[in-house]
Structure formats: C-alpha cells, structure tokens
Design goal:
single chain, mainly alpha, 17 helices
Length: about 450
C-alpha cells in the first residue's frame, strides 16, 4: 500500500512484462492442463468400465475445485503474498497429478485429480491473474490478452503431446509426466514481485527505524511505570499488532454491493454452465462420428491455437481509445457467437466441419477469456480486482461441477450428443442476453454511479 493509503500507479511495463510471462506460463500449467483432462476421458471410461456421467465428474471436480477455492487463493495472495500462494499451489497440483497416476478407481481420481490438483490450481490462477491488473492500466486488455493466451498455446501444444504420451506410456505415465510439468508453477511463483511505490520504497528504511524507536520508548515507559507501581496504560502496541495480523475491514468486500457486479455475476453463472461442455465432449463426440484419436486430439489443438488469436486480437482491439468504453460489447459479442457455434455441432459429422467449429469456437472463447478479467476490473475498479476475481471464479464452481455430468446423463439417456451441445449453446446465449438487456436498460436510464460498467 502506498503512502496515504493509495495504491502505487500502474507502470504499464517494466517488470510488468515479467508478470505477464509468469501469468502466461501459469495458464498453460493450469487451464490448458485442465482442458487436456478431456483427452483422458475415453481412457478412464474404458479402464474403469464406467458410464459417461460418472466419468465426467473427474473433469467437473477439477474445474469446480479450482473455481470454488478461488477466493481462498485471492485471500492468501492478498494477505500473505502472491508468490507464496502460487508456489504452494504448484506443489499441491503437482502432487495431485503424480498421485493420480497410481489411481485404482474413479473415486481415487475424484480426490487426487479432482480435489487436490484443483485446489493447487486455485492457489495459482487467481493471484497471478489479479497481479497483471495491478501492473497495467492503459494497456490492460493487451496485457491480459497475452497472459491469457497461455491457455490456447498450452492446449495447442499439450493436446497432441498428451495423446502421444498416452499411446507411448499409457494414461498413468502421461499423468506422471504432467505432474512434472505442473511443478514449474513454483518457478512462475518466484516471478510474482509485488508492485511497490518508489517513494515509499525509499522512505521505508527510515520509517522502520522511527517505528523501532517509538516501540522501544513505549516499552521503557511501561517498565518504569511497573517499577513505580502505577497502573499500566494502554500503549497501543496490541492494536498495531492486531492491525497486522487480523483481516481488514469489510471495505475490501464493498464491491459485492455494487448492482452492476451482482448482475455481472448472474451472467457468469449461465456462462460457466455452457462453456465447459464443448471442452469435455468434443473429443468423445468426434470419436463417435468415426474420427481417429489423433484427429480428435488435433481438434483440441485447433481450439487452443485459435484461442491465442482471440486472446491477443480482442485484447488489442479493446485497448484502442475509441473502443475502450465498449469492452462490454466485445465481451457480449464473443459469448453470443460461442453459443451459436455450439447449436450447430450436432450437424457436423466429419473432420473438416469439426475443424471449422474448432476454429470459430476457439477464437471467440479466447476473446471471452481475455476480456473477463478486464470487464470485471472495469466494473469494480482495480482496488477490488483481486477479491472480485476470487468471487467471479467461485461463481464458476457449481456450474463447472454439474454441467459435464448433466451433459453426460443426457448422452447416456438419449444415446446422442445433440441435447448436450444444445444445452451448452442456449446457456451461453442466455448469459449474454441477461447482461445485454440490463446494460441497455441502464444506458437508456443512465444515472451517476460508482461502478465502471459501460
């Protein structure tokens, strides 16, 4: 915290680009690895002789736990340090993947891969995403576009690699190698240097010396009073200690009362319900229409590489001065087009058409991923960004938990993937419709507000 209680100004560069690099690598080791869990879907389904609904719980638990524990990751990042949170998270997620390679049942995978790895990802993901927002202001969307493109690049590279690892070493060997990869999150954590006000940094040594002198003098006064038999006065030291060790006031959660943030949160619930289904079921659906395992893995790579393009292009476009106030429109456009793409999946029955879907869906998924923290920051402001992102990712938890098993149940009951992809598409469109309707109504009846939502 800077002098006067104000935050240090965002430098829009410098060490901030190292923070972007750390966030980029973190998204590869967290979100890209989570997406590649869908490549293990058929392997788990066949090895444990389970139905689609039970197998889908593995992917659901990874996503759900990551988002459910996001506020805890934010809290540790805010009150301990972002560096500590990421390093602990890297250790937990690596151990979870390594233990998963020894799984003897689906229930074992629910705990090791679903819960333990998910908790580790939560500790890493939220703090590093929030850290990017503290280092950038004018170029925030571009910085987030580059940082979040790690999801797409990671998926593009890891999808065929994971499929090859499964063929060479079985799914157990592939999980073991992924555990080693994820351990590099500890290196990413080492890059997370907090933003410090230069003026405060120069004066910190003198302030520390003054504080030591004050505390020493108070202790001498108390000692003299005790020797004289006088009642000991409250020196104020305990209050100072309490200020250091207890959580801050409820000002940190004031953003929860912003009407715009509450409406954005409702939209996020529908968004999370729809966006996870394609990443879980695109590979099984492709195999069901006669596409080979390598081609199915290639579709995940196409999703990933187009996500990169969407991350960076939408980030760059949204940073233009003439469009900066219309970031919410770009965000809504990306979600609507994602939803429309899902509605057409049941009509796509060959590899060429599914590649076209992966190109289209991947591009706009990358756009939404890059803009989500930007829209959140524009809504609550940079002061509350870390805590707000924790809540946003927490809201993704329940939809991420239940949507793949519900889609799997629909597949088991109908013998077709049509209902699953229709459910995904309509959920995404509903998310955009809610936010668009409310935003339009507020624009037509505009009043002075403390929120930032355009």
């Amino acid at each position: 915290m800077a002098e006067g209680g104000r935050r240090p100004a965002a430098p829009d560069g410098g060490w901030g680009w190292m923070i972007v690099a750390g966030c980029f690598l973190t998204t590869i080791c967290t979100r890209a690895v989570t997406r590649c869990v869908s490549i293990f879907f058929v392997e788990f389904h066949m090895h444990f002789s389970s139905d689609y609904s039970r197998t889908a719980w593995i992917h659901s638990l990874v996503d759900c736990t990551t988002m459910l524990c996001a506020p805890l990751g934010s809290y540790i990042g805010n009150h301990l340090s972002c560096r500590a949170a990421v390093m602990v998270g890297g250790l937990l997620s690596s151990v979870g993947l390594i233990l998963s390679s020894f799984a003897t049942s689906l229930e074992y995978l629910y705990l090791s891969l679903g819960v333990l790895t998910g908790v580790g990802f939560a500790f890493c993901y939220t703090p590093v995403v929030a850290m990017v927002g503290t280092y950038f202001k004018a170029r925030k969307a571009l910085a987030y576009g580059i940082a979040m493109s790690g999801t797409g690049i990671g998926t593009f590279i890891l999808a065929p690699v994971v499929q090859l690892l499964i063929e060479l070493y079985s799914w157990r060997g592939a999980l073991l190698i992924l555990g080693g990869l994820v351990s590099h999150l500890c290196v990413c954590g080492a890059l997370m240097r907090p933003l410090v006000n230069p003026r405060l940094k120069q004066s910190s040594k003198r302030e520390f010396e003054v504080e030591v002198e004050l505390v020493t003098s108070k202790l001498h006064v108390e000692l003299n009073l005790e020797k004289a038999g006088a009642p000991k006065e409250n020196s104020g030291i305990s209050e100072e200690k309490e200020g250091h060790f207890f959580p801050p006031s409820t000002d940190e959660c004031r953003f929860l009362l912003m009407p715009d943030f509450l409406l954005l949160s409702v939209s996020f619930l529908f968004l999370a319900f729809g966006c996870s289904v394609p990443f879980v079921y695109l590979v099984p659906y492709s195999l069901s229409v006669g596409i080979s395992h390598q081609q199915a893995a290639l579709l995940m790579s196409v999703l990933g590489v187009m996500g990169i393009v969407g991350n960076i292009t939408f980030g760059w476009i949204s940073d233009r001065k003439c469009l900066r106030t219309y970031r919410i429109v770009s965000y809504l456009l990306a979600i609507v087009l994602e939803g429309l793409a899902c509605l057409f999946v049941p009509l796509l029955r060959n590899f060429s058409l599914l590649v076209a879907f992966a190109l289209f869906y991947g591009y706009f998924d990358g756009a939404y991923v890059a803009l989500l923290p930007v829209v959140t920051s524009d809504t609550v402001g940079p002061t509350y960004l870390s805590s707000a992102l924790g809540v946003v990712f927490f809201l993704h938890a329940i939809p991420y938990l239940i949507s793949p098993p519900i889609a799997g149940w629909l597949v088991d009951q109908t013998g077709s993937y049509t209902a699953a992809f229709l459910l995904s598409g309509f959920s995404l469109i509903c998310s955009a419709s809610i936010l668009a309707t409310v935003s339009l109504a507020r624009r037509c009846n505009r009043r002075p507000s403390q929120s930032y939502l355009g």
